[in-house]
């Protein structure tokens, strides 16, 4: 999995939500992802379900840090030429779900924690697979 650190089609999205706000709206991190990827509403005339077809692979992990829930998504776009617009559209969709601070960065800026986790075969088990390679 460390090969993704050399694949520029991957990007990372980190969303930080207040613990109490998170649990007012979502049951758990997988519920957040389901609402994000399967939601019924449209943005730019495209449903969330249709929008997520822009990704070929992905995973996420969750962390509780003091009074915040942090979700770290690693996503691979099918079309590298649209990585900027796709990541911006994703942040808008996330903010519509729950307005929270969101950071987007490339795999070269991956946190040391993610880098270490992905370098071990068992470290990948800390992530939930959300999109399968096609």
Task: Please describe what this structure looks like.
This protein has helices spanning 19-25, 29-38, 48-51, 83-97, 112-119; strands at residues 10-18, 42-43, 46-47, 55-65, 68-77, 102-106, 128-131. The protein has one domain: Alpha-Beta Plaits (2-Layer Sandwich), CATH 3.30.70.260. Strand 2 and strand 3 form a beta hairpin. The radius of gyration is 14 Å and the shape is globular. The protein is built from five helices and seven strands; from the N terminus they run βααββαββαβαβ. Helix content is 33%, strand content 32%. A five-stranded antiparallel beta sheet has the order 6-1-5-4-7. A two-stranded antiparallel ribbon has the order 2-3. It has 134 residues and is α+β, with helices and mostly antiparallel strands. The mean pLDDT is 89.
Secondary-structure arrangement, i.e. CATH architecture: 2-Layer Sandwich
Low-confidence stretches: none
**Principal-axis shape:** globular
Order of helices and strands: EHHEEHEEHEHE
Helix content: 25-40%
CATH superfamily: ACT domain
- The overall strand count is 7
Biggest β-sheet description: 5 strands, antiparallel
Structural class of the secondary structure composition? alpha+beta
Strand order of the largest sheet: 6-1-5-4-7
CATH T-level fold name: Alpha-Beta Plaits
Can you give the mean pLDDT?
A: 89
How big is the Rg?
A: 14 Å
Q: What count of helical segments does DSSP give?
A: 5
Question: Approximately how much beta-strand content do the residues carry?
Answer: 25-35%
